[in-house]
Amino acid sequence: MAKDELNEALDLLDSKLKKEGLSRRDAFKVAGLGSAAFLMGGNEAQAAVSAKASDVKAKIVIVGGGLAGVSTAAKLTNSLSNPDITIIEPNPKSVSYQPGNTLVASGVYTKEDVMYDTKDFIPNGVKLIKDKAVDFNPDNNKLTIGSGEEITYDYLIIAAGLSLDFGRIRGLEEIGEAKSVGSAKKILDTFADSGVCSIYNVDSAVKTWEQMQKFVEAAKTGKKKMQGVYTHPNTAIKCGGAPKKIMYLTNSRLVEAGARDNAELTFYPNGSTMFGVPEYHDAIVEQFKQRGMKWNYKHNLVEVDLDNKIATFDKKWLEKGAWDEDLEEYDMILKHEDVKVPFDLLHITPPMIAPKEIGDSEVGSAKGWIPVNKQTLQHVKYDNIFSLGDIAAVPMGKTGGSVRKQYKVVVDNLISLMEGKPLTSKYEGYTVCPLITDIGKVMLAEFNWTRKPTPSFPLDPTQERYIWWLLKVYALKPMTMYGMLSGRA
What we know:
It is built from twelve helices and 21 strands. The protein is of the alpha/beta class. α1 (about 1-20) packs antiparallel against α12. It is globular and about 70 Å long. This is Sulfide:quinone reductase.
């Protein structure tokens, strides 16, 4: 089944590229996607498969069976001659293609396009425990799962993802914490038909498409100026570009329907920029101006009145205070004000946290995330523990593109540690964000800890391009699902 789906996706990609006068090989070359060799077939695909390299043996436990956890397990399986690997994961759909949620929410994908059974991607020989880790005893190399069973390990990899903390927002307390994959009942029951939506859960992304269509239809009537409001919280989040992507796509659907003049779209980010990399920030600001989209910095969503359709933001700013004679400068005083904003469509990017049973445990940190050396991804306190993906405390590292680099570093360093060698593999902070700016356009933002563009192809990275749309919609999903999850991409 997987092979048939992969071939179907590649056939669609080839047909689209043919219209552009490009072969798949040429397109990947232009995109700098060397890790896509397995999609080419032939000798390159064979070269992408790691040879069995190490005879060292130990019991490895991976907490989390999503993209990060399964990719790591697959590469370990490819790299060890006698692997002993256990994945702890309660969700049977944990390896859903989460970057596709934005496309589900805009009517490009359906839910079925992004949902997969975890068991179909577990590498041969890897044991799957359908439960979750609830307690950690790292001093004794043990953890406890929900059933009460104790699991021992020699080496532990934590790749459990994060939680969506909707309950932190007043008016949404009933939702509490939610997951990106799993039951969305509390989200959907609470939001109902209020115009409030979120792409950060698969079923909620489906509902977002329904709400977007209603918003567009209402705008088409011209009875009033419709208000679309989009938020970005005061916490780290997965895929920092997604809150803007769904706004761009709403704009695109309004233009398509001839109703753009009857809607006002406004972005309310907690931060003071559109993007942490100045070049991409400047490009996004210009794109917003061209599309007539508005923004207000330093606004954090703190309350939602679902009945009256009012979003309340904590607006913050600095004011000059008293003169400090010693420092010879003015004190700067942080001010706050509640700002009430009416909406017809409200897209919420919820605050995000590590699952409390992990973040608040002995392996967590004061801020909840798993503290690791940002280059080696080894735990700062426990040498036999590594972490990657959304839950790891690394700067700008909460995207699938980050995981594509991280899981190779973890495997290389774990094997080096098992063999008594220095940890030489380094994660340099590479992150890629295919920022969808329109139906048919993507700006491929690549960067690292230098906060400078790091394009892997000789094209201006701040430009929106159709080729990146083709790769986003047709190539990146099979690359992720059948490349990374096999440990080859």
